[in-house]
Amino acid sequence: MTSAKQLLSLLCVSLLLSACSSSGSNKQFVVVPPSESQIENSVKDQVSLTLNAFTPVAGQALPNHTVLEAYENRGYDPIWIKDKKINMSIYKLVDILEQSYTHGLNPIHYHTGTIKEYLALKQPTPQQLAEMDVISTIALTSYAHDLSNGRYEPQLIDPNWQLDAPNNNWKDLLYLDSATDMVNSLPLLAPRSPQYQVLQKWLVYYQDLAAKEKDIFVNAGVPLSAGDEGPRVAQLRARLVQLGDIRFSTRKVNEEQFDTLLKEALIRFQQRHHITADGAAGSKTIEMLNVPLKTRAKQIAYNLERWRWLPSELEANRIWVDLTNYTVDMYLNGELTSMKAVIGKPDRKTPVFKGLMTYMVTNPTWRVPHRIARENLLPKLQADPNYLVKHGYKVYSSWSIGAKELDSTKINWKAISEDKLAFRFEQEPDEGNALGQFKFMFPNKNEIYLHDTPAKHLFREEDRAFSSGCVRLENPTEFAKEITKGSKQFNDMNNSLKTGSNTVITLPTYIPVYLVYFTVVPNANGMLEFRNDIYERDALMEEAMGYSAFGSRDSI
Questions:
Q1: What does the alpha-carbon distance between residue 281 and residue 299 come to, in Å, rounded to a whole number?
Q2: Handedness of CA 358, 364, 367, 372 (dihedral sign)
Q3: Contact at 8 Å (CB) between 93 and 79?
Q4: Quick one: 35 exposed, middle or buried, by C-beta within 10 A (0-12, 13-18, 19+)?
Q5: How many CA atoms are closer than 13 Å to the CA of 437, on its beta-carbon side?
Q6: Cα(404)–Cα(10) distance, rounded to whole angstroms?
Q7: Residue 55 confidence (pLDDT)
Q8: Do 503 and 364 touch, CB atoms closer than 8 A?
Q9: Which of 38, 118, 291, 375 gives 34 a disulfide partner, CB atoms 3.0 to 4.6 angstroms apart?
Q10: In the chain, domain spans
Q11: Pairing of strands 450-451, 471-473
């Protein structure tokens, strides 16, 4: 237990504060210090009591355990009170917490109102000072955790979201020399990605704009195109100015005329919203134009949280599977190579996760996943018993290593139901093989990998969600060359392609693979792309992150 002397010193602090906060009055207070029996709570007791009372919203106990450990480490000395004075950095802390909305976080989670109530007390008791100290530390720690790792558990929001890379750097904050150092270090915990920083600036822009201005909407009507005139054209122009696609200019223009510059601005808007960039305002374009500013701000906030689920620093060499852009980006040796990709259909979503690519296979045999065998292959066999022979498949009695190969034409497929299908199917390497000439492996529980495909026509589509979950590459040969360039494995790969042999090639360097999902992304010009939410994951973020205050009637 903390000694009475220490608690009496806290009382002295309260007296000092009351004298300093008497609003210009010269009246002096004379107070008899309490005895030990009059002191109800030590700082140690208050840590335990307050941690239980102020468990962070959303049930995150992790920051509270960290708070307890930090106080234990310092012998339960207060953090925010030193030399009989409250450290002024507590006011800066409150300012930072109140501005947490600029990161898409909610200030309601960080007890700012409660801290301000304690700071407003004219004659705080030792117990109140202890409470203020602990609650302020809880708030600091919760915000440090949330800014660094994200506030929400991604898999509780979406089971298909398996990319969560927490770090413990935020805990180090509590072991710095002073509260001032702790507060000053808070901003350094935000993700360091330039994309996060640009998103955060746009969030502030949309938040400020929504607070200061009303949305300028374009009335429904016939499509607008170059040469048109009228009030709806003026609405279109004003909305594009509001959204930043037209920069404000002092040049005089006819607001109601659809001129070339307006068409160019509209094309830019369409491109960054992934809709047909024809420079005409049809129904789809007007629908996108009329999405409220507050809704767009929420979308940005969801994606800031997704960035916080990633590692704080990304590897220089990495493979970035951008699901909402249908692309695979290779960051290797200081160069960027990108190509189109086909991803999982909405009913067979490609999951979000991180893997480590360790090997590739040339001229691969395709071992058909059990789900695809049940849902895709069995119906085709029931319609045509010769389907396996026609398409180069073999069928085995089971999934065991020594399973016997069977004659598929002698099996009564119509008598087999999905839940009774126990055969193993393999497609031999050839031109029609579903995996083409390559598959690139980063072993994972989802059995997801990158591969070639004979269905090249799908890369001509704008929206390319056609696979059963794996990612198909537009140019797998180029991909293979990039990951083996300058190594012995590069020659091994070329030789295996010439001979048509099924060959496993260990990569010269293992490469991190990120499968990511962002619905708002800064483009090369610093403007925001709002992408199609193909897997409807934003709705799950809305449900998890949405907050509305309780009314008095709703309180217990």
A1: 23
A2: positive
A3: no
A4: exposed
A5: 16
A6: 81
A7: 55
A8: no
A9: 38
A10: 36-190, 216-291, 308-365+431-546, 369-428
A11: parallel
DSSP helix, strand, coil percent of the chain (3-state; round to 5) = 45, 15, 40
Q: How far apart are the first and last CA of the chain?
A: 36
CA angle 493, 497, 502 (to 5 degrees): 85
Task: Name the β-bridge partners of 522.
Answer: 528
Question: The sheet that has 393-396: what strands, in order across it?
Answer: 366-367, 424-427, 393-396, 405-406
Residue with tokens 């396996």: 388
What six digits make up the tokens of 395?
A: 């069928």
Active-site residue among 103, 109, 111, 451?
451
Q: Would you state the pLDDT for residue 267?
A: 96
Catalytic, 65? Answer no
What residues does 330 pair with on adjacent strands? 319, 337
Its sign, for the CA torsion 176, 179, 185, 187, is: positive
Give residue 99's pLDDT.
Answer: 96
Distance of alpha carbon 409 from alpha carbon 472, whole angstroms: 31
pLDDT of residue 249: 64
Q: Which two tokens mark 466?
A: 């056609």
Distance of CA 93 to the CA centre of its chain: 26
pLDDT of residue 370: 84
103, 109, 145, 470: the catalytic one is 470
The two most distant CA atoms of the chain are separated, in Å, by 104
Given this structure, which CATH class describes domain 216-291? mainly alpha
Query: Class of the 308-365+431-546 domain?
Result: mainly beta
Half-sphere exposure of 141 (CA within 13 A, CB side): 29
To which residue do tokens 């809704």 refer?
295
140's enclosing H/E stretch is helix 126-149
**SS3 call for 425:** strand
Q: Is 183 helix (H, G, I), strand (E, B) or coil?
A: helix
d(CA 11, CA 123): 10
Residue 307, φ and ψ in degrees, nearest 5: -65, -35
Burial class (CB in 10 A: 0-12, 13-18, 19+), 465: buried
Count of other CB atoms within 10 angstroms of residue 120: 9
What is the DSSP-derived secondary structure letter of residue 224? B
What are the residues whose beta carbons fall under 8 Å from the beta carbon of 78, sequence distance 6 or more?
10, 43, 129, 130, 133
Alpha helices by DSSP H, 352-414: 370-372, 378-383, 387-390
Give me the pLDDT at residue 200, please: 96
Along the chain (556 residues), what's the average pLDDT of each consecutive run of 10 residues?
41 38 40 34 64 56 79 88 87 97 93 94 85 92 94 90 86 94 96 94 95 95 94 96 82 88 95 94 96 96 96 93 98 96 96 97 89 89 90 88 88 89 87 89 94 95 95 97 94 91 95 98 93 95 72 44
Instruction: Of 243, 362, 251, give the one whose Cα is nearest residue 296.
Output: 243
DSSP β-bridge partners for residue 343: 465
